[in-house]
C-alpha cells in the first residue's frame, strides 16, 4: 500500500465519519456484548476458585452417624492421596429473639420467641466450632479456613463470629455486639454447648457457605437459616466431632468445577468409603465403653426429675386457685361508682328541664312586654310633640292662675279700701280719713289737697272705676284659665300613654334580662349533662377494664401454668429423648457408617457453577444480532462509498494500480472500523458486563470479589467474527466494481433503472394504490439491501426490547404468581404446630383447628403435612431439594392452593394414584405423567408415580393426598405438622391497620401452646421482591439502551445514505414545489412501512428469543414466568416507534437544508 | 409594467474568504407571452438569474417582480407556492426521477398543481404517446428532455424556465426541443425563458438578453423572430 493510498483512506474516513462511526459502534456493541457475556462464566469461576484456594476448601466431606475423634483423623491421613484432614463439629440450634409487643392493657411486654426464617419456619442457626488461631493466610493446613473481615476474634468461649453475608443481609440479627439467644430443638443446648448466649464480636468469610441457600439441618424446619463460628472450647465434649474434612493432594492447582478436578477426587473418595467400615467399628467400640455406664446413670436421674416436676406442678396449681378467689370482689365498687354517676347525671338532667320551662315562661313574658312596648312606641311615633305641648299648656295655666290670684287680691283689697272709705264718709271720722286715704293710695295716686272728704270721695270714685276695670280683667283671666284647663284635659290621655310607654320600656328591658339569664342557664345544662354522661361512661369503662383485668389475671395465670407444665413436660421429654438417643446410639453402633461427599455437599457450590454457565446463553443471542447488523451496515456503507468513488477507482486503475491494491483501501477502511470497534467493545465488554452481572449475583452468592480477566480466545473470536461479518459486507461491492474496465468506471454510472415491481402485475391491487403509494412501493423495491438492513435493524430493536421487558416481566411477576392473591399459593400464612398431630387423633385435631376458628380474622384453615425431602430419578443421577405437601382433606384445597396443569392451565383435582410435581422438577428430570419419581427423606425412600404436573414458580413442591402419601411411603397414618391459613380480606390489605392486625393474630396464635410459629407469605414476598424489582429495572434499562443504540446506528446510517443518494431526486421535487412536509413524507413513507414490518417481525421474533433467554437464565430452584404480558408488547412497540420518530425528526432538518441549486448543478 | 422585472439585482456567493459576484446590478424586463433568451458564456451569471427568477435561490440585493409581486422578499412557504403554481422548470440534465415511468414523472408534478393539464395529453403533445409507460433509463436523451418539458408544461404554469435544455442533446434533437418550446410559447401564450450559450439561436426569440461577467450588457428585441425549423446553425 502506498502512502498516497493510505492517506486517501484516512481522508475517506474523515469524509464519511458518521458512516465510519456507525460501523465502529455496531461492532463495539457486538464484540462488547459477546466478550462480556462470554467472560462472565470463566470470571465467576476464577473468582470462586481463588476464593476456595485461599480458604483451603475441603475436597471431600466425611459424615459419620457416630461422630469422629482424633484417631479417626489419624487413620484418614494415612490414606494415599489424602493431603490433609480437619475435624470439625457443629450443633444446630434454634435462634430466639426478644419480641416486644403491646398487650391488652396497652403496656409493652417482652418475650423470648423462636425467630422466623425466610421460609417461615423456625430459624435454625448452626453453631460451628473453630480454632481461631488458624485463620486464612496463616501457615496452617486446616481445611475450610475462615477469613477475618472486621471486628475482632473471639477471646472467650461465649463469643462468636458471623459471616459477612449474614452480616449484610440480616443486620437485625447479626451486628457486632449483639447477643444471640440459642436453644436446642427438642434437646437442651447445654448438653452440647457450654453456653446458650453468644456475643457477636466479628465478621468472617467462610468458604463452606457461599450462597443464600445454606443447606439442610435435622432441626427446625429442616433448613439452615444462619450459622456462627464459636471457639472449639464452647463445645462440651472434647474429643467428639461431627464432620471430617479431607483435602486431596494436588488439587490446589486445579480449577474447581473442571473435569480434571473431579477425576482427581473420585479415587480418594472411593478409598475412604472402602476403609470406613473398619474404622467406624473401632470408633463404635470406644463409644460403647464410654457411654454405656453414663446411660444407666441418666435413666436414674430422669426418674428423679420426673418426681420433682410432679411436685412443683401441684404447688403451682394451688397458687392459681388462691389467685382466683382473690378476684371475686370486684363488682361492688363498680356499683357504687355507677350510682353516684347516675345521680349526677339525673340532677343535671332535671336542671336542664327546669331551665327549659323557665326559659319558655320568660320568653312568653318578654313577648307580651314587647307587644305592649311596640303599641306604645307606635303611638309615640304618631304624636312626637305631645309631651312638649302638654308642658307648655301647663305652664300657661300656671302663669294665668298666678296673675289671676294677684289680680283677685288687689280687687279684694280695693273693695275693702272702698268699704272703709264709705264708712269713713258715712262717719266722717277725720282720723280714719287719713287711714282710708292711705289705703286708697295703693290704687289711685294721692295729692296733697286730697286730705279731705271730697278728695276721698273723688278718689273713691276713681278707685271704683278702676276696680270695675280690674274685676273685668279677672273675669277674662278666669275664662282664659278655663280654656287652658280644657286644653290640658284633652292632652292628658296622651300623656298617660307616654308614661305607659316609659314603663313598658323598663319592663321589656327587665324581661329581656330575665330571658338572657334563662337562656344562659339552659346553655350550661347540656355541658353538665355531657360531663355527667362522661363520668358514667368512664365509670362503665373502668368497670369493664377492671372486669377484664380480673378475668385476664384469671386466664393468664392459668395459661402460665399450662405453659409451665408444657415446659416441664418438654424438659422431661428432652431428657427422655437424650436417653433414647443414647440407647439408639448403642443399638446403632453395630451398623454405624460413614457417608462421604464431594464439594457438592457445600451449599451453593454447584448452583454457583450452574449460574455462571447460564450466562453463556446470552452470549449467543445479542452478538449474533449485532454482527448481522454490522454486516448489513458495512455492506450499504461500502456500496455507497464504492459508487461515490467510481471515478477515482477508474483513475487509479487507469494509472496502473492493481485491483487488489485498490480493493485494499476499502478493506483497510472496514478493518480500521472493526479494529476500533473491537478494541472499544472489548475494553467495555470485558469490564462492565462481568462486573455488573457479578454484582447482581452477590445477592445470591458470597464470593467477596472478582477481578474481570482478559480472555484472549474470546477476544480473538469476537474480533474475528466481527471482521468476518463486516468484511463480507465490503468484499461484495468492491469485487463487483473491480470487474469493470477503467473506461467504464470513468463514465458516470447509469442511474439505477426504474423497474416494475411484482405488485404491478396484480392490477387490482396496483390500481388501488394512489400515486404516492406506487412511488413508495417502487422505492422500497429499488434498494433491497437498505430495505433489508432497516428491516433487520428495527426488528432487532423491537425484539430486544420485547425480550428485555419480557425478562423484566418474567422476574418481576414471578412472586406475585407464586404468592399473590390469585396464585399458586393462595394461602396467606402457615402455622407450624408445636407437636405434630397424627391423623387418627381426631380430638387433638379438633382442638387445634378450633384455634383457627376465628371469623373476621381467619377465613379458612387446613392441616397439612409439610416436609423437605430430596427428589430424583435414576436417569437424572442426582437429587434436588423439594417440599412435600400433604393436605388433610382435599375438598376445599382450591381455597389454599391453585393446582393448575403446567401446560393447559386447567385446575387439577387430587387423586390417590400418585403425586403432583411442579413443572420445573418435571422439566429438570424430564418427567411426564405416569413416570416415576423417587422421594427420599432420611432413610425412607418412596417411588411415586407422577399423577400431574402443576404450575409453580419458586422452589419445588410436590403434592400428594394423604391416602397416596400413606400408600407410597408405607406409613400407617399421616402426621400433620402445619396448618395453612387463608386470612379474611381485611387482613390481607396492604394497610398499616391490616399489618397491625396480622401482627396481633400472629401473637395470639403463637401464644397458644399448640402453635410454634406463624409465617406469612407476605413477609417472604416483601423480602425478596425489592431485590427482584431492582433486577427488573436494570435488565429493562440495559436492553432498552442496547436496542436504542442499535436502532440509532441502523436508522441514522440508513437515512443518511438514503438522503445522500437521492439528493438530486429530493432537489427536483423541491423545485417542483413540494412543501417541506411533503418532501419529508416522500422519504418517510418508506421508513414508516419498513418500520411497521420490522416492528411486527420483531414482536414475533422476540417471543422465541425471550423464551430461550428466560429458560437459560433460570436457576434450578425457580421457574420464571415464561409468558410475555400484553404490556411488554406495547412497550416494545412504543419505544421502537419513539426511536424511529426521533431519528426521522433528525432527518427532517437534513432534507430541509438540501440546496436545490447546488444539488442540481453537478452531474458527475 | 412588465411581466417580469429585474431591478438592480445582485447575487454574491461567499466562499471562504473570497466573495464571488455572480450577478452585479442587473436590470431587465420580459413581457408576458414572450420567448426570451438569456445568452452568455459559461459563468456569465445566466443560471443564477434563472434560479433567482424560479424562486430556487434568493438575490443578495435588488428586487425581482413577477406579475407585479416581489419574489425577493417573501417567506420560504410563499416561494414554494410560487414554484408550485407559477413556474415550470426544464433542466439541462432532465432530472427525471429514475424510479418513475414517463407518465408518472409528469403525474408527480400535476398532483401538486391547482389546475393541471392531463398528463397523457401533454405527453402526446410532446410526441411521447407511445412511450408513456417507459422508465427514463429506457428513453433517449431527447425523449427524456421531452418528458421533462411535459412535466413542466403539465403544471400549466405561467412561466417556463429552461436551463440549457439542449445542452446534452445532439443538433437535430436539440432543434426539435427548441421547436417544441417555441411552439408552446406561441400556442399557449406561456412566457418561456431559455438559457443558452449558443448565440446562433438568438433569432428565434422575441427578446434576447445578453450577459457577461454577471452583468447585462445588451437587450434586444426581434420584431420578427424566426421559426426554429427555418434556422440552421
Keywords:
heterodimer; A: 1164 residues; alpha+beta; six-stranded mixed barrel; 29 helices; flat; B: 233 residues; alpha/beta; Rossmann fold; six-stranded mixed β-sheet; four-stranded antiparallel β-sheet; 10 strands; 28% strand; globular
Helix content of chain B: 25-40%
Total count of domains of chain B: 1
Percentage of residues in helical conformation of chain A: 55-70%
Low-pLDDT sequence parts of chain B: none
Radius of gyration of chain A from CA coordinates: 57 Å
Question: How many individual β-strands of chain B?
Answer: 10
Give me the secondary-structure category of chain A: alpha+beta
- Which architecture name of chain B does CATH use? 3-Layer(aba) Sandwich
Count of DSSP strands of chain A: 21
Report strand % of chain B: 25-35%
Which overall shape of chain A is indicated by the principal axes computed on the Cα atoms? flat
Strand content of chain A: 5-15%
Classify the oligomer.
Answer: heterodimer
Q: What count of helical segments of chain B does DSSP give? A: 6
Distance between the termini of chain B: 35 Å
CATH topology of chain B: Rossmann fold
Please tell me how large the radius of gyration of chain B is. 17 Å
Strand order of the largest sheet of chain B: 6-7-8-3-9-10
